Amino acid sequence: MLLDTASLYFRAYFGVPDSVKAPDGTPVNAVRGLLDFISRLVSDHGPDALVACWDDDWRPQFRVDAIPSYKAHRVAEVVEGDAPDEEEVPDTLSPQVPVIEDVLAAFGITRVGSPGFEADDVIGTLATAAATPVQIVTGDRDLFQLVDDKRAVSVLYPVKGVGVVDVIDEAAVLARYGVPASRYADFATLRGDASDGLPGVKGIGEKTAAQLIGEFGDLAGVRRAAEDPASSLTPARRRNLVAAADYLDVAPGVVQVVRDVPLPDDLPVALPRAPRDPDALRALADRWGLGGSVQRLVAVLAERR
Question: What is the pLDDT of residues 117-162, one digit of tens each?
């Protein structure tokens, strides 16, 4: 099981009231919510291995160099200096992220990122290398491109918390979008994604993108059709595709998940059956008021022995 950790702790932050606080009054709703999510996921799906995948770089330079608008609307204003772009995160969420890191470490849940890459790329690399079935837990549709029935790679897409999830396999991708999972990245490139600052091609939404992929096979086929006056494309659609050539030249490298990022050898991915550092975990639970959430996860892990 591969966790898109930031996707989950953002979901926890907005799903758990900020009245959930530590003894000193610090909000810990994201921390407790994430721990409860992990407890529910382990209980419901019983993974043998679990990795919390991390954004070492939430806006990698190679993607920004290709498309400067990539996630640009999420960049927090920097008052002074030339600090690297920082993601605009709610004031009461930022202090919780180091607590999440400490609690995961005390439990012995592996947390891994790769410098210069997003969690998506870490997930793509681990899923591609896995010799066993993989469940990816994310609220990010971009990871639907990794779905592969032959290799038993699926996505658990949260609907209500993580207690209700849509299991996304190849049939689900096809039913939702009208394209095979293997062509989802091409489809997403044509459609664009305002939430990631990807403009897409003018006049092409989900329905048209799916229609074009269905007719011409893939993005390369769509682009060849745009250059062919004898193709079935309307003149307006051909003009829009040709006009978007610069975007289409670089967008695939932004949309496609990297599947070979550098990661440590022999990652300890086995699901812990007991906390790695019980004393540290106890101290964290006391300091941050995490008792109930910590106890639930300890109990769930013990049941997996």
Answer: 999 999 999 999 999 999 999 999 999 999 999 999 999 999 999 9
**Mean pLDDT over each residue of the chain, to the nearest integer:** 94
- Fold match between domain 2-172+258-303 and domain 181-255: no
DSSP, residue by residue, 185-234: HHHHHHH-BGGGTB---TT--HHHHHHHHHHHSSHHHHHHHHT-TTSS--
In the chain, domain spans: 2-172+258-303, 181-255
pLDDT in tens, 80-111: 444 456 677 788 999 999 999 999 999 999 99
CATH code of 2-172+258-303, in short, is 3.40.50.1010
Q: How open is the CA angle 185-53-160, to the nearest 5 degrees?
A: 75
Would you state the structure tokens that stand for residue 154, as one six-digit string? 């699926």
Res 78: pLDDT:
42
For residues 192-210, give the mean pLDDT: 95
Confidence of residue 75 (pLDDT cuts 50, 70, 90): confident
Which residues are CB-contacts of 128 (< 8 A; sequence separation ≥ 6)?
A: 146, 259, 260
Pick the CATH number of 181-255 from 3.40.50.10090, 2.40.50.140, 1.10.150.20, 3.40.190.150: 1.10.150.20
CA-wise closest residue to 36 among 305, 296, 281: 296
**Per-position DSSP letters for 162-182, written without gaps between them:** TTEEEEE-HHHHHHHHSS-GG
Residue 34 structure tokens: 């994430």
CB 178 within 8 Å of CB 210: yes
Query: Where are any strands of DSSP class E within the chain?
Result: 2-4, 51-53, 110-112, 134-137, 153-160, 164-168
Exposed, middle or buried by CB within 10 Å (0-12, 13-18, 19+), for 105? middle
Q: Which of 174, 180, 234 is nearest to 204 (CA)?
A: 234
